[in-house]
Amino acid sequence: MRTAKLGRTDLEISDIGLGAMFIGTSEPLGPRDMEEDLASETIVAAIEAGSTFIDTAPVYGGLLSERIIGKVLKARPDLAAKATVVTKVGAKPGGRDYSYDTIMRDVEGSQERLGLERFDLLCIHDAMDFPMEGVMADDGALGALRKLQDEGIVHAIGSAMNDPKTNTPYIETGEFDVAVMPNAWTLLNRIAEDRIFPAAEKHNVGILVATPFERGLLAKGSKSGAYFHRRNFTEECLAHVADIETLCDRFGLTLATVALRYILRHPQVSAVIP
After folding, report:
1. Could you tell me how far CA 204 lies from the centroid of its own chain?
2. N or C: which end of the chain has fewer CB within 10 A?
3. C-alpha torsion angle, residues 48, 52, 58, 63 (rounded to 10)
4. What is the reported pLDDT for 251?
5. Are strands 119-125 and 95-96 parallel, antiparallel or unpaired?
6. DSSP string spanning 123-187?
7. Global pTM?
8. Are 56 and 20 in contact (CB under 8 A)?
9. 95-96 and 91-92 as β-strands: parallel, antiparallel, unpaired?
């Protein structure tokens, strides 16, 4: 597995990570339907294969994703020594809250579930529809993360918003070392070219691209008939993917390989987290 430097941080991570929102789930079940044994096996297989960067959050599986990862890392200290885990603050089962005290409690909860005292990276999660000035205030999420940085509990801080329109202004502030970026850069989606990549380049923000397979279309293909979470593709889009598949076949490549490597060609992208 290749590694890459994460933006302006001194972190070196695997360029293909493990997105832990759906670990241990079976289609068409959602992220709250995790099979713990299958999820654990997935984490072990990923780290052993060199995919040592793991992306999770309290809201994934209703806290279950963090708990499973924590159990694996506790049981396998050899794997824990290789792994870099990013989790998030502000969004959790039951709602979202970006106040200072809540963020501090969120981090304590993640420490307990994951069995980690310190974090290489913590991200503000899904602050859509919340006033940015409040999230960024000294008595808000950013203030709490800065305090945790001062205390040595977190090394780097990031923005992780499911909506690119929300993520963009956060990245443009230059306050964040890293951005987890879903729904903005794939073989089918070039939103990030407009403002996200220019801002990331200006401030040397490390970009972690989530949803690189468009929820599975760019892994299973246009004729799979599979369920794609939160996606409804047009016939025109499916025909375009079929053309890409034909081109991949001509060169003996899988669609999934091309989808990932295309994303990683951009110099500001440190890793993909399918």
Report:
1. 18
2. N
3. 10
4. 97
5. unpaired
6. EEE--TTS-HHHHTSTTBHHHHHHHHHHTTSEEEEEEE-SSHHHHHHHHHTT--SEEEE-SS-BT
7. 0.95
8. yes
9. antiparallel
* 33: confidence class by pLDDT, cuts 50, 70, 90: confident
pLDDT in tens, 8-30: 999 999 999 999 998 988 655 55
Q: What is the mean pLDDT of residues 219-231?
A: 86
Q: What's the one-letter identity of residue 271? A: A
Q: Per-residue pLDDT averaged across 216-244, rounded?
A: 90
Percent composition of the chain: helix, strand, coil (DSSP 3-state, to 5): 40, 20, 40
Residues 6+ apart with CB under 8 A from 141: 89, 90, 98, 99, 100, 103, 124, 127, 135
Contact of 202 with 171, CB cutoff 8 Å: no
Determine the straight-line distance between the first and last CA of the chain, rounded to whole angstroms: 15
> Alpha-carbon distance 43 to 245, whole Å?
29
Q: Which two tokens stand for residue 115?
A: 């069995």
* Helix or strand holding residue 257 (H, E): helix 255-264
Residue 10's Cβ-count burial label (10 Å; 0-12, 13-18, 19+) is: exposed
According to DSSP, the β-strands at 18-19 and 178-181 are unpaired
What is the three-class DSSP state of 17? coil
Is residue 240 classed exposed, middle or buried when 0-12, 13-18 and 19+ CB atoms within 10 A define those classes? middle
The total of other beta-carbon atoms located within 10 Å of residue 223's CB is 10
Is residue 226 pLDDT above 90, yes or no?
no
